[in-house]
Design goal:
heterodimer, A: alpha/beta, 8-stranded mixed beta sheet, 21% strand, B: 2 domains, 12 helices, 68% helix, disordered C terminus, AAA+_ATPase (chain A), ABC_transporter-like_CS (chain A), transport (chain A), ABC transporter ATP-binding protein (chain A)
Chain lengths: 675, 299
């Protein structure tokens, strides 16, 4: 057995709040990483995983302090070292890869120069050798044409390329260990899958140890040898990836795994009730209030992190034996439920030949007759039935948000018709009647940005009530606010809260309540669950499904997470560069024949199962504009046939009948069936 | 099936405090802020009560007692007309205080609202109006003030309007810049998509978010305006004599600085304590509101 590279022993970190009370962030955390090993650190937001990651770099947030314990890196105490010694360790022995690569790079310096700077500071490479080493590093992170890339500024690179540069910078000092804090969050699925493969390869090649911090169980399953699960500032389970995903022994691990929507299973998973407490605020086990296995001892006695069975599997639970005794795979099968609802055979919204462009020709363009660039969104024809959920799926830049903004009247369409009842929705919101505005409501991705931080919940929900129901009296509105809050399963007392005093899930419920206050016919959901924690996500999906049933509301649901789409949608439209690739019911989309782009997306989805490998087909180089002619996906298509794809817009093909599943591709259906 | 199984979310424990109470709590912890606030309150109370508490009539000319040094009878001595400098210093801020307070309120209101509206509208309107504002800002402010006041006279109401108008340009800039941070936020988009009127969006969605910036800027503007008023007064365009005013008092008693320095020091100390007070307060206010993060944001 080899020696540990880093050892965290009984570490507690906390800060004193304004009242002078000690607030724990981390509580008695112990873990270790061996050379070359990858540890995945999972947990929901606020569980202290980033604090632990930063502590491993010898960094504490302003005001926090180590209450107890230590971090030993190669035998040296990180918090006992002088600033100078810490500096020599950071970058040389242990390097950090942060979440937002765009912010980690200096915007005014060429990326090559930035890497050279790191090399000069952290290694004794000098002179001409530094440039060669820099090119070598860029090649190592598989950036095409490293010489050219080195001359670029950060903003000239895509998000994935920026992240690669940051990885190259981290590798410059040839560290023994990398700490990665959500490095792929915010990237497209395909880009994410590529970066993860790159990291896996680099680690295998150089023997670097990694601590990979993420909230995404799929990502963790792909990269980790071992997984540590955090809850409320404590490690609750620590085991090999295979063990933790196949037979988790902590009730929280089970609950978490059971609340993820799955690509292969239809229906919405169960959600976990409640939310995490402040670390150290409960006398017993922190998970007791949410735990289905809780017994009397759990609320009085905090459990120890102890070894179970023979394998190195650590669990912090009194009742782990009972937990392990229940069959997890069977349990998983039972939790997914389909909320029954009927879509009527009446159109709610009909889009025909919709084209949207951001391009505004200026005077010089008009004089010189510069040809217009291809429209951002083009040739969209969709028929959305009343009471149905249509999901728009695609990577960033696929035009899904653009379409939704046009339907909501925030962006004018260039041509085409969006038929809704007897009105055309291609006009701007200023020109719509109040009644029309009322019928189409919008819910945004990030409730932090979509709720005014200076308004109380009551004021937020009051806005649509005042606007659309001017005859309502104050008391009626008040009663309605409480009723709406209860419909989104929030206590009526939340009326007096400000958004800053609520959790992410609660805020999103308020945003949903605000949209439903208008009693809309159509609700446009723009990535409504992607900013939420997994355990909350399922609850929000469930809520949306229930609300839909009540008034047979039509949903247009934007998402990039294909598993979430599978859970909630009736029909799916796959978009690439503002062009439709494939339209069909959920079952049709999630089984062959696939459009090559759909297949690429499906292949890149990471599932919480360490044995499943993603299938990477297309390159992850994103395109900035659609091609002038031919198939939109031509430049990245793994099944590209010939000039036909370059020149001719592909025809719609119908695997069954003309009303159902349709794929826009030159490749014959029977060839697409072969995956 | 599971529709009814979900319980209503328990109310998570949060100490309920309004943003106002929060700000006050932060402000109370700041030494500078409390000193500043004390100075401001002192001056305001003094302005209200000074006519009733002055030891002598500030306008009474005691010819035999001219240019007297400080004594128990005249704490700050007398000026060359034999007026009691202590009494004059106490009452000398009344007009300045009223004019600048009203002027600041006016400047922040019109400038702030215009700025928010421009930030929200954007596009050509914003472009053109801002160029005009830039042009106006390029003219030295004292010149503008002198010009307007020499035409319209030294009536305090005219002065209030003039100050309110000229100091409003900077408020436009500040409010517009603060608004630009928020217009792209989705709550503004949500309000637009709902079909809310522009007025509602400006007043209900944007104003509450830029109010903190405007408050701090308002406090700064107030101190600038006081200096401006005193400068005007120094040049003889402030109040109509014999009404006492700090700026005018400093101007007139400069000549006897060598023999009776207190005739200048008195009003100077009064003016500077007020301005220092306002500055300390606005600094602390910015920190309490979380706008100035140089000291680390309050957790």
């Amino acid at each position: 057995m080899s020696k540990n590279l880093i050892e965290v022993e009984n570490l507690s970190i906390g800060y004193y709040n304004k009242g002078g009370k000690l607030v724990h962030v981390l509580k008695n955390v112990s873990l270790s990483i061996k050379p070359g090993e990858t540890l995945g650190l999972v947990g929901e937001s606020g569980c202290g995983k980033s604090t632990l990651g930063q502590a491993m770099m010898g960094y504490l947030r302003l005001g926090s302090q180590v209450m107890e314990g230590s971090i030993l890196f190669s035998g040296k105490d990180m918090f006992g070292l002088s600033t100078r010694d810490l500096e020599s360790i950071r970058g040389n022995k242990i390097a950090l890869i942060p979440q937002n690569a765009g912010e980690a790079l200096t915007p005014t310096m060429r990326v090559g120069k930035q890497i050279i700077e790191t090399l000069e500071l952290k290694t004794n490479v000098s002179g001409a050798a530094t440039k060669n080493r820099m090119i070598e590093l860029l090649g190592q992170v598989r950036l095409p044409h490293p010489e050219v890339m080195a001359e670029r500024y950060p903003h000239e690179l895509s998000g994935g390329q920026q992240q690669r540069v940051v990885v190259a910078m981290a590798l410059a000092g040839q560290p023994d260990m990398l700490v990665l804090d959500e490095p792929t969050t915010g990237l497209d699925v395909t880009t994410q899958a590529h970066i993860l493969e790159l990291l896996r390869d680099i680690v295998a090649e150089l023997g670097t140890a990694m601590m990979y911090i993420s909230h995404d169980l799929g990502v963790i399953a792909r990269v980790s040898d071992r997984v540590a699960l955090m809850y409320a500032g404590e490690i609750v389970e620590d085991a090999s990836a295979a063990e933790i995903f196949k037979s988790p022994a902590h009730p929280y691990a089970r609950g978490l795994l059971a609340s993820i929507p799955r690509l292969e299973l239809a229906g919405i998973p169960n959600s976990m009730p409640g939310q995490p407490p402040i670390p150290g605020s409960l006398p017993g086990c922190s998970f007791t209030p949410r735990c289905p296995f809780a017994t009397e001892i759990c609320s009085s006695e905090p459990p120890e992190l102890k070894m179970i069975l023979q394998t190195p599997h650590l669990v912090r639970c009194h009742n782990w034996e009972k937990v392990v005794a229940t069959d997890f795979s069977q349990e998983l099968k039972d939790v997914y439920h389909i909320v029954e609802h009927k879509a009527q055979d009446v159109s709610a919204i009909e889009l025909s030949d919709v084209e949207i462009t951001y391009h505004q020709p200026n005077m010089i363009d008009r004089l010189r007759r510069t040809p217009e660039p291809p429209a951002t969104v083009s040739d969209i024809t969709l028929d959305i039935k009343r009471g149905e959920t249509l999901a728009l799926v695609g990577e960033s830049g696929s035009g899904k948000s653009t379409i939704v903004r046009t339907i909501s009247g925030l962006l004018p369409a260039k041509s085409g018709v969006i038929q809704f009842e007897n009105c055309d929705l291609t006009v701007n919101v200023d020109k719509r009647t109040m009644d029309l505005c009322k019928k189409v409501q919008l819910i945004f991705q990030n409730p932090d940005a979509s709720l005014n931080p200076r308004h109380t919940v009551a004021e937020i929900i009051d806005q649509p009530l005042k606007l659309y129901f001017p005859k309502m009296t104050r008391d009626e509105r008040r009663a309605r606010q409480i009723e709406l809050l209860e419909r989104v399963r929030l206590d009526g007392r939340y009326r007096l809260r400000y958004p800053g005093q609520m959790s992410g899930g609660e805020k999103q419920r308020v945003a949903i309540a605000r949209a439903f206050a208008a009693e809309p016919d159509v609700v446009l959901c723009d990535e409504v669950t992607s900013a939420l924690d997994v355990s909350v996500q399922a609850a929000v999906l469930d809520l949306l499904a229930d609300l839909q049933q009540e008034r047979n509301t039509t949903y247009i649901f934007i998402a990039h997470d294909l598993a979430v789409v599978r859970a909630i949608a009736d029909r799916v439209a796959v978009l690439y560069q503002g062009r439709l690739c494939e339209v069909g019911t959920v079952d049709e989309i999630y089984s062959p024949p696939y459009h090559p782009y759909t297949e690429t997306l499906m292949g890149a989805v990471l599932v919480p199962d360490p044995d499943t490998e993603p299938k990477l087909l297309a390159s992850d180089t994103p395109e900035l504009a659609p091609p002038a002619k031919g198939c939109a996906f031509q430049r990245r298509c793994p099944k590209f046939i010939n000039d036909l794809c370059d020149e001719v817009t592909p025809p719609w093909q119908y695997p069954q009948d003309e009303d159902g599943h349709k794929i826009r591709c030159h490749i014959p259906i029977n060839e697409l069936l072969v995956v | 099936m599971t529709v009814t199984t979900q319980a209503v979310e328990e109310l998570s424990p949060v100490k309920r405090r309004t943003p106002l109470a929060d700000t006050w709590e932060n402000l109370r912890r700041s030494w500078g802020g409390m000193i500043g606030l004390t100075l401001i309150v002192f001056h305001v109370l003094l302005a209200l009560s000074s006519p009733y508490i002055v030891p002598q009539d500030p306008q009474l000319m005691d010819a035999p007692a001219r240019n007297e040094a400080p004594s128990t009878e005249h704490l700050f001595g007398t000026d060359k007309l034999g007026r009691d400098m202590f009494s004059r210093s106490l009452v000398g801020g009344r007009v300045a205080l009223v004019v600048t307070m009203l002027g600041t309120a006016l400047a922040m209101t019109w400038g702030g609202l215009t700025g928010i509206l421009l930030g929200f509208l954007g596009g050509k309107t914003d472009e053109y109006v801002m160029r005009v504002v830039d042009a106006l800002l390029a003219i030295p402010w004292l010149l503008v003030l002198l010009l307007i006041i020499s035409i319209l006279g030294t009536n305090p109401w005219v002065q209030t309007l003039t100050f309110g108008f000229t100091y409003g340009y900077t408020a436009i800039r500040v409010a517009r810049a603060a608004t630009l941070d928020y217009v792209t936020h989705e709550f503004v988009l949500a309000a637009r998509a709902r079909g809310e009127r522009k007025r509602t969006i400006v007043l209900k969605e944007l104003l509450p978010n830029v109010l903190d910036v405007l408050l701090v800027d308002g406090a700064m503007t107030w101190s600038w305006m006081l200096l401006g008023f005193s400068s005007l007064s120094f040049l003889g365009f402030g109040v109509t004599p014999p009404t006492p005013d700090w700026g005018f008092m400093i101007a007139k008693n400069r000549e006897i600085l060598a023999i009776q320095p207190w005739a200048v020091f008195g009003p100077a100390i009064m003016l500077s304590t007020l301005i220092i007070g306002i500055n300390l307060f606005s600094d602390a206010l910015a920190k309490a509101l979380g706008l100035d993060r140089s000291q680390g944001a309050p957790v």
